[in-house]
Amino acid sequence: MAKQSEKAELLQGTLDMLILKSLQGGPRHGYSIAQWIGVTTNDALRVEEGSLYPALHRMEKRGWIGASWGQSESNRRAKFYELTRTGKSQLGEQVNMWGRLVSAISLVLDADPAEGQS
After folding, report:
1. Which residue numbers delimit the Transcription regulator PadR N-terminal domain (predicted)?
2. Total structural domains within the chain
């Protein structure tokens, strides 16, 4: 298990994309979203409550997710979040933008820094 200091920090936009992706498979409560991200990334990314819940509230206000109360797996009352149509569209846009960013960074990392120097 990685130490806390080795955990990657998440940028707000990246966190939104990860949350939206976690909801693509169906409704989840906050703890389940954080767990899914951790498990899916082999614990490389950890989402703290202090980042998760403000992001969920912000995304709900933007209409990207909807929320309703239900029972968790442990029989506790929990707020479940699900993707809206707008959220699905937003996820697609963010995934495309992320792909372009990764491609651009890869070009820089693969470039020979000596090329183009006078």
Report:
1. 19-92
2. 1
